[in-house]
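seq as requested:
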Amino acid sequence: MDEITQRYLEEAAALLTYKPNNDRFLRMHRSTSKTRLLLGGKRSGKSTFGVVEVGWAALGIHPWLDYPPPPLLIRVCAVDFNAGVKGIVLPMLYKWLPPRAIKKYWSEDRILELTNGTLIDFKSYDQDLEKFEGVERHLVWMDEEPPKDVYQSNYMRTVSSGINGKLIISCTPLHGMTWLYDELYDNPAAAPPYVEHCHVTIFENPHLDAAAIEGIKQDPAMRDNLDAALYGQFISKTGLIYPEFGEAHIIPPRPLQSEELALVGIDPHDRQPMGVLFVALNRENEWIVFDEILEHLNASELADAIKRKLGGRFPPNLGIIDTSAYSPQSIAGTSLAETMTQKYGIYLIQAHKDIQAGRLRVSTLLDPGKDQKPKLFIMRNCVNLIREFRHYIWDEWAGQRRDKKDPKEQPMKKDDHLMDALRYVCMSNIVWRSPQLKKVERKLPDTISQTGYY
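struct tokens:
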């Protein structure tokens, strides 16, 4: 080995000998997913993760991912340029990259040129969206949460000209349940090989003092932000309507039992998807959601879908539908509820529309109190309902009015069709009875012809 190579390897020792703090960092370094989402508490090492990924790719020494040989085109994005890029990202890159690998930083163009021809350009989220257009990129690292349109523009840079590049987002989710939560985190479609995510906490950084971390936990001004700042967890800025809901309410899928009542809740819509829930009620009067529908359907398609879901248990013992379904439809002349009952044999009653009472009813079923077990469970296959539970938040005043008014006492009307259907079922006040019970027709005796009485 010649002297120049020896010195280069010594300078690159930080990248070559780097060891992740934990197995989740290692898993994300090895991940081949298109987008990797690393959610971390403050000072958890998430920015180091991004710098190492950029360094490995830029020098062509990534131990697990198959990037093309250098030169590569790489983009690094931060919240702003002065604090994010110049204050954090650039110094970290200068620290981790071998000095001999750096050719020049072009300050006017915000490009770091390496001796192997790799170009790393820097962007900030406060720039116009047009600045994020341009040629392809083999890797885009976004340090802290980007606006959605910035992510979309960066994504398209990784698929042009036949390049299947990678994207990394490393952030502390301080802004609550934003588009990032809705679309790249708590979304059944956000899964490998498209999206992969993991959480790392501040406690896993071996270089931080335990007493300093404890001080964060004790600071009164930090207490409403600890889940995000320490653990990298999403927190709702307006408050979840059902904070009681959690893993204890999610159970494995199983078939509807013969002794359970089969109930159906329907939230109908013309322009939006219909929300339909299938709920079992057992002899302990526990409500168990075992299936769901969330799609655009007409009356016949809805009836067919309910038949398929229930199979031999069709028709349901009871169906509850929004009161809007009783309005006559302009073309058919009859209402959806009448059509479902008269044409398809699904007996329906009108839903109780008191939102406040319905919310309290669902909350009580989730947490009856006094150390009692829950009375409401959702099977894990009901992914859309579970997602709505985690996204169902209070509405909030916009802008400066937020500080001048009391909080709104109503949920945010967005992606809540299954929540409405669940509330309709739970407010039906039905109690368990055996599905085998049949109505017995009472035969009256013949009348006495002289009097007309029995």
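The longest helix spans residues 81-96.
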